[in-house]
Amino acid sequence: MKIDFIKSRFMYYGLALILTLLSLGAYLTLPLNLGIDMTGGVQAEYDYSLGQVNIDTIKTLVNETKKGIVYNNTEVVNNTNVYKISGEDKFVVEAGFSKISGISDKDFEGLKTKFKEDITAQFTSLSSAKVTMSRYINIGESFGDYIKKTAYMTLALVIIAISLYIAYAFRGSIEGFTSFSFASVTAVSLFHDLVVAFGLYIIASYFFPEFKIDTFFITAMLTVLGYSINDTIVVMDRIRSNLR
Question: Which residues form the Protein export membrane protein SecD/SecF C-terminal domain (predicted)?
Fold first, then answer.
């Protein structure tokens, strides 16, 4: 079965434009569901023995505790996540913290410590099992800022670098076509793939809170970019062969 993509190219142009505008609109209007490695927060791992724990009970205790972590009558904990570790008698509590305007670093860290102490006290009082904290990680807000800046910079540099490579590799290969033509098409193609993937994920995360934008998501975006680069080079090479 042969599909005439060229004949239907305007339909595909329109579809690509709609998806790009939809994705950009989602990025500009919807709140980003950032993970704690982006916003800063805490992650605590707990062991339990001599019984079982109900994950719904744990979630309820976490939600009750976060309401008490306030600064100037404003809740500081913006999101929480609780999950069991498969195959082990362990569960993990993650809490993202919003740095309220005017709060000092000392007070902000103090609220993180208070959350850890309060939630641990709640868990140790459970009668269904003996719960102890085995690991605690405090993720600073500056780390999240560094990750975000590095991610944006990396993605931009990759698009620029591969566009320059295409311009160099395809220079003078086809009479009447400049290397800039290939480079610009490459840049637009890679930008489209990233924006659409990012935008659709933002929309999904708006309806499904478990879809976090974190370091794993950045890794996935780099993977998408890698496949897109490979496809772009193959397509460009085929175009060059057909036009010669």
Answer: 124-244
